[in-house]
Design brief:
The chain is mostly helical. It is built from eight helices and two strands; from the N terminus they run ββαααααααα. The longest helix is centred in the C-terminal third of the chain and has 30 residues. The radius of gyration is 27 Å and the shape is globular.
Length: about 280
């Protein structure tokens, strides 16, 4: 490196084998485009903040979109998902006992996905979402999530989506659009604890440690990768299973997962009987 001579007006010196520029070129060729884009307002209605970088939304709505799949919609909580997962798990278990070929094939595929060897996929995406997906599957295994739970979660996501789509447009739906549903379904799928299990069972992992609450970071690209991959295998079956599950429930649950309003039981004003002579009191 000692024999290298810097060009006039470009390099100031050679220091420890590194070329030190006197007039460094612009390292951000998109600076002008970013500045012009940030002069516009965010595309979200009623938001008057400037756009962020080259996106169409402000920084707050862009971050919210990365977290939920929608710039303004909320995250579906575990308490909302839980009754749907419980119903779907019961349905999947019943179909397994009856040897349904589609459910049996889906559980076999999920078993290979959870416990198979090798990487999930090889992609040229620099964000490498398949590595995050593989780590999320490892957390599912450690948390005690089995193949039948894996399938039940996908059925539950579609069952919730179908009933939510039937809500009147005048009401606030849980899923705002397809992107919101896809990211929320992927979050449900990769949650590292069995949602239908009691609280004491959700506090411990299979290896005996109390690290079951460590959800880990599942970013935007990992959720999109997980949805595309799982939906390609289970999407059609989950859609049909969700339709059958909603028919069997018969509208007993609302789209938010709550039970329907209760009515008085019949004969609640009948006199009670004594235990010795069955006479009324």
């Amino acid at each position: 490196m000692d024999n290298i001579q810097p060009k006039s007006g470009l390099l100031s010196r050679i220091s420890r084998g590194r070329l030190v520029l006197r007039h460094a070129p612009d390292c951000r060729p998109l600076t002008g485009q970013i500045a012009r884009n940030e002069e516009h307002r965010c595309d979200v209605p009623d938001c008057h903040r400037s756009r962020w970088k080259l996106g169409s939304r402000c920084r707050a709505h862009a971050r919210h979109y990365e977290a939920t799949g929608h710039p303004t919609a909320r995250t579906i909580r575990r308490g909302t998902w839980r009754p749907w997962v419980v119903e779907a798990a019961s349905f999947v278990g019943q179909q397994l006992r009856l040897a349904h070929p589609g459910i049996d094939a889906a559980v076999s595929w999920a078993a290979g996905e959870l416990f198979g060897s090798g990487k999930a996929a090889r992609r040229s995406d620099p964000r490498r979402p398949h590595t995050g997906y593989s780590r999320a599957l490892a957390r599912l295994r450690a948390g005690g999530v089995g193949p039948d739970d894996f399938v039940a979660r996908w059925v539950a996501a579609y069952a919730f989506r179908q009933l939510d789509a039937e809500e009147p447009r005048s009401q606030r739906r849980s899923f705002r659009d397809d992107s919101h549903f896809q990211h929320q379904a992927a979050k449900l799928l990769l949650h590292p604890q069995p949602l239908g299990a009691p609280a004491w069972a959700r506090q411990h992992t299979e290896d005996g440690s109390a690290d079951g609450t460590a959800v880990g970071r599942i970013n935007f690209s990992v959720r999109r990768f997980a949805f595309d991959r799982v939906n390609a295998a289970l999407g059609l079956l989950a859609f049909r299973a969700a339709d059958e599950l909603n028919k069997r429930l018969g509208g007993s649950r609302s789209a938010t997962g709550d039970l329907r309003p209760v009515a008085r039981v019949s004969h609640d004003d009948a006199p009670f009987l004594t235990s010795n002579n069955n006479s009324t009191t």
